[in-house]
Design a protein that fits this description.
Number of strands: 24
Number of domains: 1
Shape: globular
Distance between the termini: 40 Å
CATH class: Mainly Beta
CATH architecture: 6 Propeller
Helix content: under 10%
Length: about 375
């Protein structure tokens, strides 16, 4: 599978850059890096025969987020549009993380049954998602290059792509680990093991590494990869988190009752948007929210927290939202793409929701909700 070499230049242009700088970077970077996409070429998945399979996705548009209202602003986010979708391949169930690869809609996702999913999201002139095309699916592979078999080994929950656009990292739970892959050889290449920043003994069986994200180069964390556990807690009840790589270490994220981490990604300035969900049974319902964690607070030994900048429940077009990506569109807007995992259940839906970040550079005071 071959993608643009410099994903950061293509999809993560910092919002703080001026229009001239943005035009220059897009003019040079996109012309060289994204030429295949802008020329209208089909989304490429150059894998050997039998290494991947095409998937037909049927989708319906979601034009408003609030089911019984007309609001467009929700906390720090402005709703842009979304899709409810189903696929022709049962492996499409369980999408747990997504990353937008380029300004023309290319995406990469992983599922908790051990699969890669890649394709393109079509968008209209206003940037609203309109459907999927050129979607293919392939198994993740192990350290020997063998397809991963079974839920226990294939429970991929998190995804991060290196700034150079050459390496993709996947976090797994149950058999807790982080594996790295070459982005241009996902269908056949073998995984490489990445040392865990959190002792494996501290990670609960099905509540492990739920998010991986790489901080922007110019931010306080300067390109460090961060992971946060879904619900692996210390004696004080706080979530284990870690800075991956040499000089990293363990820190903690304050945990709130009923809420569990499901993904996260960094804003251009370096603050972490942490996606959380709650499920309280048939009567308590399901909810999602996003907390903003200051980038300069995350360091070994720290306990971090941040305000809620977005919250939703089943009165909105929401479900079991598992994936969150933050990226820059061609207009220079900071965008959020959220995706849900329907667990193969008749009662749940596969959703893709897109928002524009409308928050302040650094929030002050109390939490912000709907």
């Amino acid at each position: 599978m071959r993608f643009p070499q410099n994903r950061q230049a293509a999809a993560r242009v910092p919002a703080s850059r001026g229009r001239a700088s943005r035009a220059a970077s897009l003019g040079l970077g996109l012309a060289l890096v994204l030429a295949p996409w802008l020329s209208g070429a089909a989304f490429a998945w150059p894998l050997a025969d039998g290494a991947s399979d095409p998937v037909t996705i049927r989708s319906e548009p979601i034009t408003r987020f609030e089911k019984n209202g007309e609001a467009s602003r929700f906390g720090a986010l402005t709703f842009l549009g979304g899709l409810q979708f189903t696929g022709s391949d049962s492996r499409l169930h369980g999408i747990s993380a997504i990353r937008i690869l380029d300004a023309d809609g290319g995406f990469l996702a992983v599922t908790d049954n051990g699969s890669w999913v890649a394709g393109r999201i079509g968008r209209d002139a206003n940037g609203r998602p309109t459907g999927f095309s050129d979607v293919r699916i392939a198994p993740l592979r192990d350290l020997l290059g063998r397809p991963i078999r079974g839920k226990a080994l294939g429970d991929a929950e998190s995804l991060a792509i290196a700034p150079d656009g050459r390496t993709v990292h996947v976090g797994f739970e149950q058999r807790h680990r982080i594996w790295a892959y070459d982005l241009d050889d996902l269908g056949e290449g073998r995984a490489r093991d990445v040392p865990l920043p959190i002792p494996a003994r501290e990670l609960r069986a099905n509540k492990g590494l739920e998010m991986l994200a790489i901080a922007p180069e110019g931010s306080p964390l300067q390109g460090v990869m961060v992971t946060v556990a879904e619900r692996s807690i210390d004696r004080a009840g706080n979530l284990f988190a870690g800075l991956v790589g040499a000089g990293g270490g363990v820190f903690k994220v304050k945990r709130y009752e009923k809420w569990e981490v499901s993904d996260g990604d960094f804003l251009p300035g370096g603050d972490l948007l942490l996606l959380e969900r709650r499920f309280e049974g048939l009567f308590g319902g399901l909810g999602i929210r996003i907390r903003r964690i200051p980038g300069d607070a995350m360091r070994a030994g720290a306990l971090v927290d941040g305000p809620v900048v977005f919250e939703a429940d089943l009165a909105d077009e929401s479900d079991n939202m598992e994936g969150l990506d933050v990226w820059q569109d061609e207009a220079g807007r900071t965008r959020l793409t959220l995706v849900s995992d329907d667990n193969g259940s008749f009662f749940q839906r596969n959703l893709l929701l897109e928002f524009v970040w409308s928050g302040e550079d650094r929030p002050e005071g109390a939490a912000v909700g709907q």
